[in-house]
Records
---
Amino acid sequence: MDPSTGMSVRRRDRQRDDTRHDLALAAFELATRHGLGGVRVPDIAAAAGVSTRTFNNYFASREAAIVWPAACHAIGVADQFRGRPADEPIGESLVESVTALYGPGAGQQLPPDWLRRFRALVAAEPALHGEYLKATAAAQEALGDAIAERIGGGQSGAFRAHVIAGMVAGAERAAVMHWMRHNDGTLADAVRTAVRQAVAGLEGGTR
């Protein structure tokens, strides 16, 4: 393949990601300011500097746009896990994979305090709950698949992998909710502590 063709494809992919990111943040900011009921798709498109048709090419609804950054964040855990050393204990890989998304440099494209404001918006807007649950379920499924690739063991291994993913996802959610209520220390530390507790004892034959 012509190298210039590959560069053009990557450039188009980046442009699509940038447009999706702009639309998602525009939807989030408008919903935070006016409430979800006070936001229309044309408003979001205008705030992002694109047409309503462009919005519809990227998202099926306002709710999907608002939740998209959270979905990307959550799916990133599986990508981080696949990038960990194959001989690293699975518990340590999971702790590092989750907390990497909360450390310095993580989420640099998102506004400061985005996570806290996003959680508050989801809590205040029941219409967002379905999209948010879909996003977290997809992320948990992706992490379960990644763990299954590591541990093998066929159907029984896959079952164990998805149970582990559920434990990790639950621990992360609990840590975030605790930190939002108490703001005790850093969010990264809270997540690390919770996930480490969830995976304690995993090394009994699982790597």
---
Amino acid sequence: MMALRALRAATLPLALAALVSGPLSAQEEGAASILFENVRIFNGTDAELSRPSNVLVRGNVIDSISTDPIVTDDSTRTTVIAGDGRTLMPGLIDAHVHIVMSTIPIAAMMTADPNYVTLISGQAAEGMLMRGFTSVRDLAGPTFGLKRAIDEGVIAGPRIWPSGAMISQTSGHADYRSVHDIPRGSNDPLHFTDQLGFSGLADGRAEVLRRVREQLMQGASQVKLAAGGGVASNYDPLDVSQFTEDELRAAVEAAQDWGTYVTVHAYTPDAVQTAIRAGVQCIDHGQLLDEETVQIMAEQDIWWSMQPFLDDEDAVPFPEGSANRLKQLEMTAGTDNAYRLAKEYGVRLAWGTDTLFDPQLATRQAAQLAKMVRWFEPAEVLKMATHDNAQLLALSGNRAPYKGDLGVVEEGALADLLLIDGDPLADLDLIADESNIAVIMKDGQLFKNADAE
């Protein structure tokens, strides 16, 4: 419990980051609005850029879009950004992140002072925003306090749709214990990873209900369960299914009572089909799925949140010959076929990275989006990482922490915008280099304006 109190207390040192981090907001200088002039717009859905246009942002929403000049009520309180024909597009959305675990080595995460882990996660969150990711769906980890600090302007970071702890069965993907920690007695304390909110071990309907409700009580936007084996975990082979159908249904029922949904970590047909029968609405990963399962997903309108996992420079490093490495090779070998099946059957696709434990890999977040041209046209990729991912976020219903439309450049939508040097529909590699992002706006506030630097 001391570790838990220390983690909660870490919000105080986070406040110090406000002295060196935060918006460049023109609003703080008295500006009533921000006007982008002479931009070509990728609106989140169309396969071509717009004609040269002007976009006015008032407060935190897009007020007007016009090919004609826009005259504001009080031009002296309007900040004008010259687009010079550059591309204005929605902020990017990563549908599968673990902010707290993204840049810290797993050994440090498991042993370091919680204050240190918290501060590292704040740094990781700011890095995501400055790469152009204005919204993320966090699918396991103690991010509730981090989200609050970002929302209150204490530190810079993306909008977060938190899941809280990943719910796992004993021996499941989020069981961080070693064999020396078992058997657990009925009066034994929870493992520290449970206490800190990395995982929530549950066996049986009653425990699943309790763990799910605990996450919802803390502010979860959606609930995450491990329904099958994982690569990074040590005691569950990829082929195992985790949780019974009734246990998964219990989670779905609890989430539905709160107006939201369950997503599951799963790779294999058995795990995914069990989850779908239980009422799960989103599958994360799924690289080893077969044609029958993908057809079921398409017929039942199940979201498929997939990551471009390949055995390449973006792979989480595991020791050669280790069980984790062998599982990684098996899983990444299925990625090409998974995308082929997703396209063939028209499954609703979301995109995410799921980068873990490596600060260098974290910097390649946008590069992982750019390499999606292996399977899709650039316009399809950008639509997936803006409009489509925003539709998945909206599945949280009343549990969505931010109200308004995201992932589009439309009048009335929330003003999460990027100004890109060049045309990413012609060259998606542009977004892989954050120096090509001239402006980053989130919620109507400027967090980067390279032209003013």
---
Amino acid sequence: MAADATPESTLPNTAAETSPDNPWPLQLLSRKLKAHIERAPSAWIEGQVIELNRRGGNAFLTLRDVDAEISLPASVWSTVLDRQKIPLERGSRVVALVKADFWVKTGRLNMSVKDIRPVGLGDLLARIERLRQALAAEGLFADSRKRKLPLLPHRIGLITGRDSDAKKDVLRNAALRWPAVEFDVREVAVQGNTAVAQIIAALRSLDADPHVDVIVLARGGGALEDLLPFSNEDLIRAVAAASTPVVSAIGHEADRPILDDVADLRASTPTDAAKRIVPDVSEELAMVRQARDHLRRSIGRMVDRETDRLHALRSRPVLATPDTMVAARSEDITRLQRRSHAAVSTAVVRALDQVHHLRAQVRALSPQKTLDRGYAVVQMVGEDQAGHTVVSSPAQTPEGTPLAIRVAEGRFRAVSTGQAQLVEH
């Protein structure tokens, strides 16, 4: 440090403590940045080589992300490149071990490649298979999550390449099967580093449209590297989260992308997808005619069967001569009336006889009946003429006793002569 420079002991310890009156020297900031960056560990990254220039013992390359428009310049020693069995070239897919370096004198951040390896087809397939197994373990491929396609979708969302054969196949074959079919076509990149983002955006847009009943992702096959976007984890999870049924129509039988496993329906080709998402109008009309004929025959058989039942019912005696039943019931009522009248008459006669008998008994036992047979009731007349005492003994009537005698037809007065004698029974 120069003699007139500010001693570090008087400088702020952290960047937050700096101020216009007490700033850091540029070299101090650079040294601190270098120390901070050097603490960052090395990292393996994956990308695609889009630029590669050799300059003596050093080389400069640019890596681009496989799924996004992001690139990173880096430097690599020629000795690292010379170790490769197959020389790297533009378009190669690689994994590289990079470490950040900061050049204090120039203030530049440089990514230094410590090791680099090409990604072969075997590595890609192994990586896809590991992702497939991990997503399957989460249950994203379970049959219970898959939704049924509507019998006749109102509108079909189609995600495909710009002016691609896959688009033409789906539109043409679907229109041949069902002329009234409607499509909402979203043309996107179906390969390259922008494909995943564009496909996900189109998928979410169609899924949010309530008029879209099914979504088709169509591509007419291709090399494994071209189909990698359809095995991207972000795209797979977006398809799994969609509420609208999704059909995968990638058209590649040799290496199935993971999209085929998560989609609600897998079609072998875009043409096959068109055949499976809409019915054939001629077949449907034939089925309608067949169903109509079957219904007509069924109704005819039912009408004939019920007609025979009506004839059978009408031929029964109870319906052929319904007055027979009424006459039989009328005779029963007449017979019951006669029996009731006879029973009541007999009971009345018996009751009348009983009344006459009881009346005769009552009359036979009455005092009047005794008087009618010649008996008389003798009573002594009291002095006050108010009451009479029945004479039951001659001793009760001395001579001259006034008497009242009651016979069957009336009363008369008499006087006792006293000559009566007691008669012994």
---
Amino acid sequence: MTSVHLDTSSHLDATAAADVLALAGRAADADGVDAISEAFRLALTSARAEVSHVAAYAAQSRLVGYAALDAAGSAELVVDPDARRQGVGRALVRTLFASQQVAKGVWAHGDLPAARALAAAEGLVSTRELHVMARVVAPGDDVDPVLPEGFSVRAFEPGRDEQAWLEVNGLAFASHPEQGSITLQDLQDRMAQDWFDPAGLLLVEDTTVTAADGNHPLAASHWTKREPGSSTGEVYVVGVHPAYQGRGLAGPLTGLGTAHLARQGVDAIDLYVDGDNTRALATYRRAGFEDAAIHVVYGRPSAP
């Protein structure tokens, strides 16, 4: 077992954040999947993020592992490929579950055999599944579907639509542990990324109702994402206001984003959806998406 020193902090400086990203890059090259999600990557350099960082250092201050825990109790960790099977992952897991702010669960992206073995050794069980679904772009995908009567679509306008989008997103994902807690600052952080394109955030409005300011109520939205230079697009966030669920928007809403990405020239499209969201899973499967991978959260088993 490698002797490691664990350093816990609420903020990382630029050098430490770069070291973590380099470590995550080495792990992704070895594993074929990213161990650190977008939210935790953004938290690496954000002084506003309520995240606890745990860095594992071996001899000569070499970073061999990293873990992060957010205010909601969600955690992620990564171990350098050259330092695995030496107790680093176990030390990080035990710190996460023994800290003052106890973790509710640790993500295992891709649910790799090593992650399953570590979870079993620590008595952790699967508490949540996130499906990664994908499909190739097919002929005709670039054509917008027809929305139900009384609805229209337009692109997001920065400076005008933030609050309306946040309201609908919060209602649509009221029970979702991550997406439902998105704040204005979180939204602005994502809008500041190099992949953000307001034309790819599609807003569906109820044109049968006009407010005093001349605007129509926001019924749903489909936020697409494409990293610069990537040939793969993403169904980033799809949300329908609860008052408009069951109105036939789900299928066309998915198709609007697919069409937008197809017109951008991507070859494939992927998305993420929780395993217990049976309605969304059914909608995406009807649209041709199939499971490509599954991410798992491991946590303590529930008390009998």
